[in-house]
């Protein structure tokens, strides 16, 4: 019962008194509810029926980080590598200088980035754990459940209260941003823009049809705000043809291609159309550089050297924990020099080891939750493959939240904050009950998802 909560931090912030004081509804949302768009019925992960409330200060912090950090990441090839192709190839492309040249060719088109920062909120504020770059950013789907949560809580639905709680429709913000970028880089032809969505990870069938229909409907809604028409379609990227410089899907000109799959190969036709500036393609080869988790270490190194503005240097050093590529090398940790393997081996509970290109919580080893033997195995793997980073463990404070039985207990939270160029796209949360915490808080490994509402006083 909410009335019994005494913890300093709760997911309801300071607004506990405005919410129900009982558990008269299930703790998890039934995603088959009639209010949920058909495309997101049978949603794959549990979603709490309670909101996460954040105040204006937390909103401002997330907004600043989500917009500024991607812009700083874009400066790494120039500031850190001085555009040296050999060094860029060795670091990001396994020594393949041709791929590095192509990646830099794409990068130098200087497209704005779509990014989701994964953060934890510690006793020292927000800490960035990783920066996910590109269109294949999970988490935006949960916004489709907003109406169900509002219905559960009078404070979110009654006219006198509802205006004090705002959510940001991440996908709608993204679509508006995407259309603006297509117009900026490609222009508009006969007031028509068409979008190709690569969804190759999803099997052909009713679910895929529902998803592209949902995308198409929202795309058309946002196009209308620009006075434009068009549609979103999907299919086999290899079926796209380059004809007289334009990219075609059968007889339809495609103006933008986005890739919702991870590690997808790009067809030659799409690449050529992009290089010719005839298609807006934000998921280009350059993202292989910008999405590498080792970049957080590079940002810290550049900030320590004072390579950014004083405000940017401070932002980086405050919000990015100590991070370093794992290797047989020396490192500076808390102003002292150490042998990196020895530092990690002897201080297991202070560090996390994770793959520099991992996703969905895969190949993440949290020392606090492993024994010495398991930690040594993780360290040996990292040292052998040369594809891992080490990061100082940033433990989430315990937020009181309802578990699956509607009992309010401490939970650890991971925040996924979206930035699209200069636009802040909101934040989504994954949380895990402290009593069952295994260190990796990810939807794919059992975390519960939650919608965030901003308190507007």
UniProtKB/TrEMBL annotation:
Domain of life per record: Bacteria
Protein name: Glutathionylspermidine synthase pre-ATP-grasp-like domain-containing protein
């Amino acid at each position: 019962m909410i009335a019994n909560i005494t913890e300093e931090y709760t997911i309801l912030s300071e607004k506990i008194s405005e919410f129900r004081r009982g558990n008269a509804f299930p703790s998890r949302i039934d995603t088959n509810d009639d209010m949920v768009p058909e495309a997101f019925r049978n949603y794959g992960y549990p979603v709490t029926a309670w909101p996460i409330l954040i105040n204006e200060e937390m909103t401002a912090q997330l907004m600043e980080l989500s917009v500024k950090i991607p812009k700083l990441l874009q400066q790494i090839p120039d500031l850190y590598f001085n555009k040296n192709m050999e060094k860029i190839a060795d670091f990001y492309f396994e020594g393949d200088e041709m791929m590095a040249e192509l990646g830099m060719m794409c990068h130098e088109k200087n497209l704005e980035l779509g990014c989701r920062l994964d953060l934890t909120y510690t006793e020292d504020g927000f800490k960035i754990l990783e920066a996910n770059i590109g269109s294949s950013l999970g988490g935006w789907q949960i916004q489709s459940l907003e109406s169900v949560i509002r219905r559960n809580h009078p404070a979110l639905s009654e006219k006198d209260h509802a205006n004090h709680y705002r959510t940001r429709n991440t996908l709608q913000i993204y679509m508006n941003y995407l259309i603006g970028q297509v117009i900026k880089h490609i222009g508009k032809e006969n007031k028509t823009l068409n979008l190709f969505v690569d969804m190759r990870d999803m099997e052909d069938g009713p679910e895929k049809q529902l998803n592209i229909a949902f995308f198409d409907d929202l795309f058309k809604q946002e196009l209308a705000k620009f006075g434009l028409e068009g549609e979103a379609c999907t299919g086999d990227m290899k079926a796209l043809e380059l004809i007289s410089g334009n990219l075609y899907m059968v007889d339809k000109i495609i103006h933008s291609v986005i890739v919702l799959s991870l590690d997808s190969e790009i067809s030659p036709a799409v690449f050529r159309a992009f290089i010719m500036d005839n298609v807006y393609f934000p998921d280009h080869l350059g993202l292989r550089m910008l999405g590498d988790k080792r970049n957080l270490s590079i940002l810290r190194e550049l900030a320590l050297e004072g390579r950014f503005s004083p405000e940017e240097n401070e932002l980086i050093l405050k919000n990015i924990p100590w991070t370093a590529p794992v290797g047989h090398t020396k490192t500076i940790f808390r102003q002292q020099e150490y042998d990196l393997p020895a530092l990690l081996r002897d201080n297991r509970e202070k560090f996390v080891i994770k793959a520099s290109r991992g996703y969905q919580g895969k190949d993440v080893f949290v020392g606090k939750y492993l024994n010495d033997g398991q930690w040594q195995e993780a360290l040996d793997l990292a040292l052998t493959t040369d594809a891992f980073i080490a990061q100082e463990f940033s433990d989430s404070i315990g937020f009181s939240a309802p578990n699956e039985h509607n009992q309010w207990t401490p939970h650890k939270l991971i925040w996924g904050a979206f930035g699209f160029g200069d636009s802040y796209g909101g934040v989504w949360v994954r949380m895990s009950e402290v009593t069952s915490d295994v260190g990796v808080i990810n939807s794919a490994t059992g975390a519960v998802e939650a919608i965030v509402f901003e308190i507007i006083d």
